[in-house]
Give the backbone structure.
Amino acid sequence: MDETYMRLALEEAYKAFSTYEVPVGAVIVKDGKVIGKGYNKRESTKDPTAHAEIIAIKEASQALDGWRLIDCT
């Protein structure tokens, strides 16, 4: 199971790499479902906070309608 999510994170990292960003991807999972994912977009957005992890956390928070990511990985 973890390999599946790691592959998804690597796919996100490849998106960053293909757009000349630092190749980092992130995936957040709850109850076996991906609720957040992202890749670095700092260069393209000129936003120093546009890290893969932050983007994934924001997406997951929206999916859960709250900021606490309890039981997420």
Summary: The longest strand covers residues 33-39. Helices lie at 2-18, 42-45, 52-64. Residues 29 and 73 are 5 Å apart (CA to CA).
